[in-house]
Amino acid sequence: MPIKFENVNYEYPTEDKSVVAVKGVTLEIEDGSFVCVCGENGSGKSTLAKLMNGLLAPTSGVVTVDGRSTATEEETELFAIRQKVGMVFQNPDNQMIASIIEDEIAFGPENLGVPREEIGERIDYALSAVGMTEYRYNTPYKLSGGQKQRIAIAAVLAMKPEVLVLDESTAMLDPKGRAEVIKVAEELNKQGITIVLITHFMEEATRADRVIVMNGGSVVMDGTPAEIFRKREEIERYDLELPVADAIAAALIGEGLPLEDRIYSASELAEAICRSK
User: Fold this and answer.
1) What pTM did the predictor assign?
2) Which residue of 53, 54, 139, 255 has the smallest Cβ count within 10 Å?
């Protein structure tokens, strides 16, 4: 079920003039892929995310989900699109509506008219998928930020989406919480769910199959992590930071240490240094 953008533009209306947030974007998100969309604040990446499931309709151009245009005014069509493309946002507290985690997970399926016995099965599946089964009867407000975001993901998973869009879902978390969410995303991708991760943390992009870099509303880079990180000067020109391990490796290579030119994690860096001796 691909998501396709065909020459898509989006403008936010303001009192004085419209602000162009997305410019001439043409791309396709393939089934089963793990795509990371990176960019500085104001680059258009979150607007791109909202265009993926019809929260926003393009000013011009076409966005389709499984052949359905997101610009449709038919509620049944939009409903079908949003069932296929689930979204998790930045602030986990703003996504919680129930005082018990089980009720939080059940809310979506109940509104879809899922039979009661199946709702129980979906709760089991969703909590197991994010590693939060033991918290089923707890209140979400006592959880850490990373745990809350995992519950937010579970609430979306209970509606059985084919694509999960994480729109800056790690931005407000500490490193431990970010790692928890990324690990869940990787596991879900292995199960066949398409993942679209919107982030400005380039460390997270190392986990993806494909990295899309946005700047000024346009797609300026698109490729595998290896292809993107190889263009160090270009990445820095777009005000993005290389993964720490990659930046250290680049400095060591510059000093004459014979390291590989594709090092993204601390463990890979340590192993490469040991091999170079």
Assistant:
1) 0.88
2) 255
